[in-house]
Amino acid sequence: MTDSLEHYQGSRLLERLSSQTGLNVDQLNFVVSQLVALVIASLYRTVLQPAKVNTKVRHGFGLIFGMWMSYFCFGYQALHLAGLPAVCYVVLLTQSPNIMHGAVLLTAMVYLSLVHLHRQLYEDSSFGLDISGPLMVITQKMSSLAFSLHDGLVKTEEEMTESQKYYALTKMPSFLEFFSYSLMFPSLMAGPVIFYKDYINFIEGQSLVHHRRSTVCSKDVMVHEPSPTRAVFKKLIMATGCALVFVLFLPKFPISRVKTDEFVNSTTFGYKFWYLTVATSLMRAKYYFAWTLADAICNNAGLGWNGSSWNGLSNVDIFRFEFGTSLKESIDAWNRGTNLWLRFIVYKRVSKYSTFATFTLSAIWHGFYPGYYLTFLSGVLFTFASRTMRRHLRPYFLSSNESKLVYDLLTFAVTRFALAYITFPFVLLEFYGSVIVYSKLYWSLHVLAIGAFWGAPHLIPRIQSGDKNGIAMAFSKAGPYSEAVAKID
Fold this sequence. Notes:
Elements: H1 15-21, H2 25-45, H3 55-74, H4 79-94, H5 100-122, H6 132-154, H7 162-167, H8 175-183, H9 196-204, E1 209-213, E2 220-224, H10 229-249, H11 261-266, H12 269-301, H13 318-322, H14 327-333, H15 336-347, H16 354-366, H17 370-393, H18 401-428, H19 431-440, H20 444-459, H21 468-476, H22 481-488
Antiparallel strand pairs: 1-2
Helix pairs in contact: 2-3, 2-12, 3-8, 4-5, 4-6, 4-8, 5-6, 6-15, 10-12, 12-18, 15-16, 16-17, 17-18, 17-20, 18-19, 21-22
């Protein structure tokens, strides 16, 4: 047993196999539990179809295997996975609908934060599997459920957005419904977050049929979901490829190297940027593996069909993230379930400083390692800078396909380097080590981001997208910025 696994409380049954595969026992337990979940998930679609069994059986099936998976991977610490929902359930039952959403969010975040702090202070963060991961998913479930109940019980339709109307609930879940939702095994270990209404539709079989407008007549037709076998197979291949990349190549580019004197003092400015880009890209393969495998499990259970594809619950769009031409495009493609959760409970409800509030909650939800906060604070700055530059610069490149291609290639390259620069503290976790690397890079992209945010509105006249006359006018007319803006507008 390695020192890094001293605090791991999960099953040691596979320790001998662990030594033969080269995987730590916690990593092997995760993989085995997910593969078992993949197999038994198919029972939801076959033996336990809604037409064959009642909803209590389907609730109980997901709950029982969720409890087994929790104990297998975490031992006695699995009590937290029941403890957090239990506390939140008491809050839901005792608090007024006017405040229940805030009370549950606060309760869940405090509970999660205490677990984060315990691990940070008393345990070794180097082992890959700990109880905080599933607790983060459960926190999303508890808070989204509370906000849905608040919307359904307090708000009128005119006061709600479209997503709030869809997810609004007017009935408190029963004990079985609540805990089966909290601990359902397909999404327990690595997400994605599933909103309560989607879960109930799945249990009752309402997700099996979708309404789609017919192209032949003007009536709605019923569209039954196809078999997920092909989608599951493709996602398993993708997950396997990501696992191989992570296992074979990441050890050659460890992120811990950026803390060494050799890297800090003996490598060039360009090499540092290159290494950070490669190391963070390879680190993402770990997340791609976990999320894609979890997506396959959900699909095999019958979750994730959106009427046209099996990507309704996909947590990541790998191609869109890796080839995004803007920071926003890449962020939207990464951890999409969490993005949806943050948008639902924060971004669309906060009138002022919504971006800052969203990043703040996201940082606290992840934990308290200083590297998280360096990444998220930088993320706020770079998001504003990216929006500003895109708003003022992009319209000048829309006059032809060639110029738009140049713009896309340029922003693709900038986005790759910016993502590596912003996110390496998130992986490194440390404040001092991250700041040392930033200082050796002269805080260059931070300086450029600040310059872009404050300078672009004064140096680049803003025009409407596709306004060729406006482009010509902006370049041909002399005079101060204010006059050029007035003529363009």
